[in-house]
Design brief:
Helices cover 41% and strands 14% of the residues. By secondary structure, the chain is an alpha/beta fold. Helix 1 crosses helix 9, helix 2 crosses helix 3 and helix 3 crosses helix 4. Bound molecules: NADPH dihydro-nicotinamide-adenine-dinucleotide phosphate. The site of NADPH dihydro-nicotinamide-adenine-dinucleotide phosphate (NDP) has 28 residues, from helix 9.
Length: 274
């Protein structure tokens, strides 16, 4: 079985560099998908309250027989639940659905800047961390200005910022901010939901290394320093997406992928989603 390398987060917690995302998988199909992923060797699972499949994830974790210490479970606070008290209540509800007594990473899903609640929300996240109910706290879809505001209001630097990131949206400025402040970059839609897999630059690199375009893109993320969480419900792809530790992209390959950065967002703009 592939052993997945880890990164050390800014509070010392170890996180697998490659995990399994479950966005858009209906709850009743999630248990099968997560079970396939766990059998293949994934140990990190990324869900969210809004995905409606925390129960399905929890069932797969329970059925797997894998010890809790080997697993890394991330879930996210939905926008409607931002605010101090509502964050604590939403966390309890997520934990109950997952059937766990703690998670490994809890994220604020979106900053929703016009609602101006994320600093209060962050205080609740800090309490959950202090109480040992989550091993690390972080954010998702935060732009540099949102991160700076959190840093100005709090002594706890987010361990992770999970953002849309793929060859079409390489987030250079944000990644540089993360590097300056010790925040790990986690890429959502790492494959741009498939939109980058037909690019000539990607397919020609794949042919040269005798791997698939998805494997090239995941390898690019790993060599760029990103944590990745590809999603698939297809067993063959679930296995394939984990099989990315046996080859290395060259400096020329990395440069060719760099040229694909076009600012292409497939999801909402974090500055305006409220
Ligand atoms: P991905 O970039 O992971 O792409 C998933 C799509 O690509 C699916 O349609 C899947 O098809 C297909 N696919 C997967 N593997 C392969 C492969 N090897 N070859 C060809 N096609 C493939 O998109 P997601 O948006 O799901 O992002 C990944 C995870 O990131 C989510 O599941 C979620 O956990 C997280 N996320 C977080 C967000 C946030 O706001 N924080 C927003 C969006 C996602 P199929 O399933 O049919 O095999």
């Amino acid at each position: 079985m592939t052993s997945i390398p880890h990164i050390t987060l800014n509070n010392g917690v170890e996180m697998p560099r490659l995990g399994f995302g479950v966005f858009q998988i209906p709850d009743e199909e999630t248990t099968a998908a997560v079970s396939t992923a766990l059998t293949a060797g994934y140990r990190s699972i990324d869900t969210a309250a809004i995905y409606g499949n925390e129960r399905g994830v929890g069932r797969a974790l329970a059925e797997s027989g894998i010890s809790r210490g080997e697993l890394f479970v991330t879930t996210k606070l939905w926008n409607a639940d931002q605010g101090y008290d509502s964050t604590l209540a939403a966390f309890d509800a997520s934990l109950d659905k997952l059937g766990l007594d703690h998670v490994d990473l809890y994220l604020i899903h979106w900053p929703t800047p016009a609602r101006d609640l994320y600093t209060d929300t962050w205080r609740a996240m800090e309490k959950l961390l202090a109480d040992g109910r989550t091993r690390a706290i972080g954010v998702s879809n935060f732009q540099p200005a949102h991160l700076q505001r959190l840093l100005d209001h709090s002594g706890t630097v987010p361990a992770v910022n999970q953002v849309e990131l793929h060859p079409g949206l390489q987030q250079r400025e944000l990644r540089a901010f993360h590097a300056r402040h010790g925040i790990a970059t986690e890429a959502w839609s790492p494959l741009a939901q498939g939109a980058v897999l037909k690019d000539e630059a990607i397919t020609s690199i794949a042919a040269r290394h005798e791997v698939t375009p998805a494997q090239v893109v995941l390898r690019w993320h790993l060599q760029t320093g990103n944590v990745v969480i590809p999603k698939s419900v297809t067993p063959q792809r679930i296995h394939q997406n984990l099989d990315v530790f046996g080859f290395e992209l060259t400096a020329d390959d990395i440069e060719a992928v760099a040229s694909l950065d076009s600012g292409m967002r497939t999801g909402p703009d974090p500055d305006t989603l409220n």
